[in-house]
């Protein structure tokens, strides 16, 4: 009989995303604040992982999260593909797996290229992570409502919709707030470093809106993957290995 990986094993994928995500956020924030690398009130998440030693923890945990996101995206795709569904749903599923893989790639870029060293690559990774992460969530929410009777209850679909909307709105306010804050920072600032934005610096309220939105967006995306726990409990993966011997 081919080796089989059952739901109680596969469920570790969303569980570990839900564990490593908060651990990374809290640990890096705490160390960065204690080291005086960032301001205490809602710094950007990337800023809390920009300098060692917190950058080492940030990179390691985010790389692991990127791997589990990639694994979760593929598992979810195979789960949906195993059902008899309309062509339109299968197309959305195909789009979602592409978006999910790009989001995982973005997370890896953010992990390995800090905003204190390679800014453009880091920002490119962040754009991939958040933009395609949100697209993935929206696609999966659409799919969830159409396969609800097969897998999960209606409240999970509603929860996924709420998390998707929170992430999407947060991304918009994050970008708008960041642009306004940066413009006003350039006009007037007292703090020597943009990583230690203070109340006396220009654009401080807009900066807080932007950073708070980034935290909300990140938590919403992490929470979204956690909602796959009941789905993966009903999933089994069979591994078929074949050995070919040359004559």
From TrEMBL:
- Where exactly are the transmembrane stretches of this chain? 7-32, 57-77, 89-111, 123-145, 157-181, 215-239
Tell me the membrane topology, using the record's own terms. Multi-pass membrane protein
The source's domain of life comes to Eukaryota
- Keywords for the protein's UniProt record, in alphabetical order: Membrane, Transmembrane, Transmembrane helix
What are the CWH43-like N-terminal domain coordinates in residue numbering?
11-233
Q: Name one GO cellular component term.
A: endomembrane system
Where in or outside the cell it occurs: the entry states: Endomembrane system
Transmembrane is among the record's keywords = yes
Q: To which protein family does this belong? A: Belongs to the DRAM/TMEM150 family.
The record's PANTHER family line, in alphabetical order, gives:
EG:22E5.9 PROTEIN, FASTING-INDUCIBLE INTEGRAL MEMBRANE PROTEIN TM6P1-RELATED
Name listed for the protein in its UniProt record: DNA damage-regulated autophagy modulator protein 1
């Amino acid at each position: 009989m081919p080796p089989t990986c059952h739901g109680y094993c596969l469920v570790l994928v969303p569980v570990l995303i839900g564990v490593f995500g908060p651990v990374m956020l809290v640990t890096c924030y705490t160390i960065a604040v204690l080291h005086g690398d960032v301001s205490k009130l809602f710094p950007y998440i990337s800023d809390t992982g920009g300098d060692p030693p917190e950058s080492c923890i940030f990179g390691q945990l985010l790389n692991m999260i990127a791997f589990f996101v990639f694994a979760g995206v593929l598992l979810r795709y195979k789960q949906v593909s195993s059902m008899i569904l309309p062509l339109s749903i299968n197309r959305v599923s195909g789009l979602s797996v592409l978006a999910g893989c790009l989001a995982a790639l973005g997370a890896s870029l953010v992990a390995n290229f800090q905003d204190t060293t390679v800014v453009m690559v880091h920002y490119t990774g962040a754009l991939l992570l958040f933009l395609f992460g949100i697209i993935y969530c929206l696609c999966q929410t659409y799919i969830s409502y159409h396969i609800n009777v097969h897998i999960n209850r209606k409240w999970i679909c509603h929860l996924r919709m709420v998390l998707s909307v929170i992430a999407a709105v947060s991304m918009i306010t994050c970008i708008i707030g960041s642009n306004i804050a940066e413009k006003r920072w350039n006009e007037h600032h007292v703090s020597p470093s943009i990583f230690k934005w203070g109340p006396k610096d220009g654009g401080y309220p807009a900066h807080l809106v932007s950073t708070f939105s980034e935290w909300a967006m990140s938590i919403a995306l992490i929470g979204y993957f956690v909602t796959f726990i009941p789905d993966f409990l009903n999933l089994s993966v069979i591994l078929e290995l074949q050995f070919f011997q040359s004559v």
